[in-house]
Write a structure and sequence with these properties.
Layout: H1 6-20, H2 27-36, E1 41-44, H3 52-57, E2 62-66, H4 69-80, H5 84-87, E3 90-94, E4 106-111, H6 122-135, E5 136-147, E6 163-170, E7 176-187, E8 192-202, E9 208-218, H7 222-231, E10 234-240, E11 254-261
Parallel strand pairs: 1-2, 1-4, 2-3, 4-5
Antiparallel strand pairs: 5-11, 6-7, 7-8, 8-9, 10-11
Length: about 260
């Protein structure tokens, strides 16, 4: 078992991000909104391009903003493997979603897969929404992708025990990868949890390797988000409970806000 190293752990997160979250059912949802937008999409927290590249493959212009240089490097490598007609639709920018100035307006801004939930303080959240508002055309749309909190996960210590995130699978180079996750700490006073993603690798020669990527994740409740959006110059058009556009209800896994710039 090799020693943990923070920078290496983040590199693992970038390398195996797509595999870890391959079960997400959100890509078609975001692609369809980009297809319906009359112009370019701005994606905040584009990561490795999991949503960004399929959006460009459907003929949509898209700009991706990402704070992690490791994630952005991985995304750039994937973009470079695409045909020229797809590459020219993509712009990548390293930046912080709480303070960016791209110098253009967009009809659509998206925040796929909880990127907004990495903003822990209200100040960060308001700063992000202000930047988004400044970059939206009049009447432009923001899609805010959040999970609907499952209350036991906010306090029950049973979630401190590792649970499977993805079953073991073989990688193209012969290694085998299994991912697990657990809650490291509960911070109900700050309304966030510290979360770990554990990457367990097995090599063909029998060696094993384990890396742990930890991060805080803020959780939100419906009317808190409605107030944030209203105070930041948005009008809520839709609230979906999943990526099939079902009506939001108590048991919905997602809170997907579609908000219009006032």
């Amino acid at each position: 078992m090799s020693e943990n190293n923070a920078s290496e752990d983040k590199e693992f997160a970038a390398e195996f991000y797509d595999i870890s979250y391959s079960g997400r059912k959100d890509i078609d949802f975001f692609v369809n909104y980009s297809l319906g937008a009359k112009g370019k999409t701005l994606e905040l927290g584009c990561g490795t391009g999991r949503v960004l590249i399929p959006t460009a493959m459907e003929g949509c212009e898209i700009t991706g903003l990402e704070i992690s240089p490791l994630m952005l490097r991985r995304c750039q490598e994937k973009v470079e493997q695409q045909p020229e007609q797809i590459r020219k639709l993509i712009t990548l920018i390293q930046g912080n979603m709480t303070e960016f100035n791209i110098g253009e307006k967009f009809p659509l801004v998206t925040t796929p897969f909880r990127s907004f939930q990495h903003l822990i303080s209200t100040e960060e959240q308001k700063a992000c929404l202000h930047c988004i508002n400044e970059h939206l055309e009049p009447g432009g749309l923001l899609i805010l992708d959040l999970f609907n909190p499952f209350l036991p996960r906010l306090y029950d210590t049973k979630y401190e025990i590792e649970e499977e995130l993805t079953p073991e699978s073989e990688l193209p180079d012969g290694r085998r990868l299994r991912c697990t996750t657990r809650t490291l700490a509960f911070h109900r006073d700050g309304q966030y949890n510290e979360v770990e993603i554990i990457y367990c690798l097995s090599y063909p020669d029998g060696r094993t390797e384990k890396r742990v990527h930890s991060f805080p994740l803020r959780y939100f409740f419906r009317y808190e988000v409605e107030h944030l959006l209203n105070l930041s110059g948005f009008r809520i058009k839709e609230l979906f409970g999943d990526f099939e556009c079902s009506r939001f209800c108590s048991d919905s896994p997602e809170m997907i806000f579609v908000a219009e710039k006032r």
